[in-house]
Structures are given as C-alpha cells and as structure tokens.
UniProtKB/TrEMBL annotation:
The keyword Transmembrane applies. PANTHER family: MANNOSYLTRANSFERASE YKCB-RELATED, MEMBRANE PROTEIN. It comes from Gluconobacter vitians. The chain crosses the membrane at residues 122-138, 150-180, 192-210, 240-261, 268-286, 317-338. This is Glycosyltransferase family 39 protein.
Amino acid sequence: MFWGLLGVLTVVRLVLAASVPLTPDEAYYWVWSRNLQSGYLDHPFMVALWIRAGTWIAGNTPLGVRLLGPLSVLPGSWALYHAARRLLPAHPWPQSGFKAALVLNATLMLGLGSATMTPDTPLLFFITLFLYTLSRAIDPDQTSREALPWWIGTGVLLGLAFDSKYTAVLIGVGLGGAVLTTSRLRRQPGPWLAIPALFASMSPVILWNAHHHWASFVRQGGRAGDWHPARAVQFIGELLGGQIGLATPFIFVLFAAGLWGCLKRNRLLAWLALVPMIVFITHAFGDRVQPNWPAVIYPVLALAALEAGWRIRWPVITGLILTFIVCIQAVFSPLHLIPHRDPVLRLTGGWAEFSRQLALQAKAEGATALAAEDYGLAARLAFTQDILPVLGTDPRWHLFRLPAETSAKAVKIEEQRHGSQPDKAGTLCRQVRGQAIRCYTMSSPDFVSGVQLPGRS
C-alpha cells in the first residue's frame, strides 16, 4: 500500500509539474541550464544540471524543467525508508521506515516542492541519500574497515547536497558535532577520511568561486552580518509561520515533539537538526528567513518525528489533504482569490498571453528586442516567447558564459510597483480571467545594452 501510494503521488506530481507554468525563478534556473558551469551567483550548479537532464528528455517545457523533481522522490523515499533501520534503533523496522517516508511525503515542502524545480529539489534528494549512507556508516555491527566505504560515500553525498544549496554545510557541521561528542565514532578513521571526500565533491563550486572573486560565497555569506534585534519577534514569527505552513500544522507539531524526544534518546539526529535550526533562529535576529531555507532538515525531522512516540496517521492524512487542496488550486484555481492571497497564481498566472502581446506590441513599434533588469522577468520572457530576443541588463549575467554584451533597439520592461504611477509610454498587465495580476511599464524603443539570453528554440 505504501509503495502504491507513493506511485500515485508521483503521477500526481508529474501532472502538476506539467500543468503549472514556470515561476520566474524556475525560468532563471532554466537559463542556467542553457549555460552549464560549475557555479552561479545565487546558488551552486546542481539545479541547472537537473534541468538540463530533464529538458533533454522532455524538451524545453515546464515538465522538462521539473521532470527529475517528482522522479527523485521515489529513490529518496527508498533511502529514507532504509535509513530508519539504523538511525532509529529503538523502533521496529520496517514500520519505522514506512512512517518516516510517509511523514516526509505528506509535507507541503515535498508534496508541492517536488513538482517544482528549485535548488531545494536536488538538496532534499541528496540529503535523504546522505542519511542512508550515514546509517550504514554508524552501524555498530560492522568493523571500522567495513564502515569506511560508507563514510566516504557519506562525504561525497553531503558534498553533492552542498553542490545543490549552501545550507547543506549546516548538516555537515551538525554531523561533525555528533562525531566529536561520540567516542566510538571519534576513534574511527571513517569520519576523518570522509572530509577529503566531502571537499572533492564540493570542489567544482569552490573552484568556480575562486575564479570569480568568491562572488557567490560573498553574496550568500554576507547575509550573516545583518543584526536587527528590534525586528526579531517579527522575523521569528514569520519563520515559525512559514514552517507550520510548509510542514503542515500537525506534522509541524510532530516534528517539534520528535525533536524533543531526540534530545533525550537520539544524539545523532538531535545534532543534525539542531545546528541548522539554531543558525536559522540566530539569522532571524538580523533578517528574514525565507520559508524554504529549513528544507535541508526536513528529511532529518521526518526521522526524528518517530521519537515522539505518537501515531502519525492523522498528521499524514491532514498533510496529504492540505497538499492536495493546494495542488488543485494551483492547477484549476477553483477559489477565485485575489493575487495577493494566491502565491502560485501571482507567480505563474498569465505569462503566455502577456509575453506574446508584449513582444508583438514592441515589434510593431519598431523594437528588435525586449530588455529587463529584473533577472526573473528577463528569464521568464526568454522562456515564454520566441518573437523577440531578450536582453538582460542586470550585472549578474556577466558571470555567465553567454555572448558578450550587445546593443539593440529594445523596449525596457519594468514591473509596476504597487501604488506607483507609470511614467513610461505604456502599461501592460498579466491577467487571469480578466483580473490583473501584475502590471508592467514599457518604455519607447531605444538602444539598450545588455546580455542576450538564450531562447527555447
């Protein structure tokens, strides 16, 4: 029944991936995939590699961009199922494996997140594989020599998670704390030999940064310097609210209770979960923590949830129901919510018709290109229409192996901010069912310099 349910969920996620238009960020990562390199300004390279593989199979379509997301949940769930055997020694297996995989699949983070393609998608996959190899590495029934290949594999997989998103390093720090405070692990050679394997796996991203003035590390590491304790209550409240939503409410409570149980009975899982949590809470004293950042610890929390000793039936059922409702709303929009209340509609609605009208209108006015400074807007226009080329004017495009900056007679497109009065030649809006979602100002055609983004053809 479990594997049958997982198969049904995979089909549903594939349908969702094919039905919902790309978000601007997904289109941005798609541009990355058209220019594969070992690092980018915002994130490491793994999401671009996954998109490249998916579009090679299913073409430059929403399904092609997202294809590996739903498919990765199957081996990821298998890995978590087997990881529970040794990471939860006090619980009977295979029941513990089924329960941990069900809890993770019932979260909105995985349920909806696996049908999209962001750096969190490969991150979650490699963290689940990491937990499996880690469970084999710490098996007390094997010798240090027998555990050595599993430790090296653990280092490699943690490095691949880092190649997906930098937050994976927090799991590594947590594992280091667990090893240093556990004498049996500390005396083995495996954990220490996993370190060079980890750095070898991370080396493509490190080398890219070294050749680009550490641009990505500086950008992401610079967030840690913010400090605004006066707004900490607001930011921590947003952090909690985001996790209650993405975990779904009952599973969030289950996570919290399980983590408390790990503090008493499971030192390893406590280390793996608490180090990232402390970092995110500390960050909330200076700046907003994006809701998806704690995704890195969701597979760990799915295992930890069983240490609460509670039944998981109703948390899983309610989580799946809430995820199903969100998916129905994302595809069919039966509730005619205003865009502010419907984040999926706000990000994905109306792009096809808007892009076509925009390109045709610009071409009629004599423009030979479209230009946008906002990276998401530029990428979305490049993915959606092939009528006119798109010039990206943001400096970040110069870090790509794209053609050199060019100049063309282009119409500049800017999102009209709420309450602002457009001072440009025209305004065009993305619409769904006659309702404006976002409006954009258009300048008169003029010569604009920028980097030409690749199109779908």
